[in-house]
Amino acid sequence: MAANPERRAQLADAGLRVLGADGARKLTHRAVDREAGVPLGTCANYFPTRDELLGALGARIFERLAPEPDRLESLAGRTPDVDLYVDYMRYLVERTTAQPDLTVALMELRLESRRSPGLAEVLGATLSRNYRLDVEFNDAAGLPATALDVALLHFAIDGLLLDLLTTSIGADATPDQLVTALVTRLLARPGTGPLSAPPAPRAE
C-alpha cells in the first residue's frame, strides 16, 4: 500500500465528493481517479479493495471534522459542568452542520456497512476508537458524564443531525435549544437540578 499521506488525503477527499454526489454504489476506484485528476490505477494503489477505500473515507471525515484547537482551549478554561457540556455539544453540531456533505457521507457509509461486512469491520473500528477518545476526553476534562452518558449523547446527537440534514420532523425549536434540552436532560441526576423528577406520591 502506498504511503504518501498527502496523496491519500487527496484521493479520500475526491472519494468523499463522489460519495456525496452519487452515493456509495457509484463509488469506484476509477471514479475516484477521475475526480482527483490522477492516472487510472492510482486509487487502487493506495486503497486496494473497495472496503479499504470506504474505510479510509470514514477516517478522513473525522479528520476534517476535527475541532479547532483554539476553540477547545477556550472551552477548556471553564468550569466542567453541564453548561460547559452543552457548549461542547453545540460546537459539535456547529462543526458537523457547517460541512453537511461530510456528515451525510458518514451516514451513507454507515448504511453501506450493513451490506458490506468488510466495511463494517473497518468503519466500526473507526467509530469505536472515536467513542473511546470522547470518553477519555470527558474523563480528562472532569466533565459530568459517565461512559454510558457519552454513548447516549452520541445516539441523541446523531439523531439530531439526521433530522437537521435530511427530511425533518419539523420540531418547533432551534438546534441550540434542542442541544441544550438533550444534554441537560440526559445529564440530569436524580434529586439535582431543575429537571429532576418530582418525588413519588406517598402511599396512603
Automatic annotation (TrEMBL):
Record keyword Membrane present: no
MF terms (GO), sorted A to Z: DNA binding
Recorded coiled-coil stretches: none
Signal peptide range in chain numbering: none
Keyword Cytoplasm: no
Protein name, per record: Regulatory protein tetr
Highest taxon listed in the record's lineage: Bacteria
Sorted UniProt keywords: DNA-binding
